[in-house]
Amino acid sequence: MRTSEPAIEQSRRFGVRPIPLLRPLGWLAAGWRDLRRAPWPGLVHGVAIALFGAVLTVLAREHFWLLAGAFSGFLLVAPLLATGLYAVSRALQRRQPATLRTALQAWKPNDGRLIVFGMLLAFAGTGWVMTSTSFILTFSPAPVRTPTDFLLHVVLSGESRLFQAWLLLGGVLAAPVFASSVVAMPMLLDRKVGVLVAVLTSWRVVMEHPLPLALWAALIMSLTLLGMATLLLGLIVVVPWLAHASWHAYRDLVDTSLWPELP
Q1: Rounded to an integer, what is the distance from CA 104 to the centroid of its chain?
Q2: DSSP secondary structure string, the chain?
Q3: Per its UniProt record, what Pfam families does this chain match (predicted)?
Q4: Is the residue at 136 inside a domain?
Q5: Residue-level pLDDT at 188
Q6: Which of 197, 252, 187 is nearest to 13 (CA)?
Q7: Are 61 and 146 within 8 A, CB to CB?
Q8: How confident is the model at residue 217 (pLDDT cuts 50, 70, 90)?
Q9: Is residue 248 part of a domain?
Q10: Is 140 in contact with 162 (CB distance < 8 Å)?
């Protein structure tokens, strides 16, 4: 392959396969099978993220406006956190050993592409936390320090429509990040392509399948919120489940047959 080609031309070498509207449900089913076949790597990831969320909750318990932004920003950086589990699903697909070591090896800092894209997602997540914090502090009619304050002054603030505006702002900022990352991170793990090529391919996937990908985004958000609502315990299962499912979304959507895979 001529990797000196412009990124858009390289991206066009990857076909986008047609899928039906409800295909994301199949990705969830495939992700669940992977989690059952290789549970330990996923559960270790899930426990680590749930513990991090618990620590964050304790540290920010008097600043719930910050906590709300941080937990919603988690959705933006989740593709980076799932990198090791993409490797596990790939190993299962190749009928290779899929262990915790498989997942940890994906984190070796020897691939600048993963580092660059991870930093971009981290910047996006940080930007949303700062934006969310500023928005709530500026427009909330009263200080928001606890979950009760957030519920009373933001969620149930009917006159100001603050919660609706906060959700709208989050959706506007999250949509391009989702479109840029929905298949980009597993693609970078799987193929020797540049970050821009992976991002452009991800955008092509979303543009060609807006309704199935909108359903996929809604499923990701709903399951993540459910995991958080169970005192974070649900994240132990939800995080690896969605990670494995995201690998299958990438493999289902992107035709990579014309580009050599990485070992």
Answers
A1: 18
A2: --TTS-HHHHHTTSEE----TTHHHHHHHHHHHHHHHSHHHHHHHHHHHHHHHHHHHHHTTT-HHHHHHHHHHHHHHHHHHTHHHHHHHHHHHTT----HHHHHHTT-TT-HHHHHHHHHHHHHHHHHHHHHHHHHHHH-SS---SHHHHIIIIIT-TTTTHHHHHHHHHHHHHHHHHHHHTTHHHHHHHB---HHHHHHHHHHHHHH-HHHHHHHHHHHHHHHHHHHHTTTTTHHHHHHHHHHHHHHHHHHHEE-TTSPBP-
A3: DUF2189 (PF09955)
A4: yes
A5: 92
A6: 197
A7: yes
A8: very high
A9: yes
A10: yes
User: Rounded to an integer, what distance in angstroms lies between the CA atom of residue 106 and that of residue 111?
Assistant: 9
Share of residues in the chain with pLDDT > 90 (%): 51
Domain hosting 53: range is 23-255
- As a whole number of angstroms, the distance between CA 197 and CA 78 comes to 20
Question: Would the CA dihedral through 172, 181, 250, 42 be positive or negative?
Answer: negative
Counted domains in the chain:
1
- Rounded CA-CA distance 117/136 in Å is 29
Of 57 and 109, more confident: 57
Answer yes or no: is 235 within a domain: yes
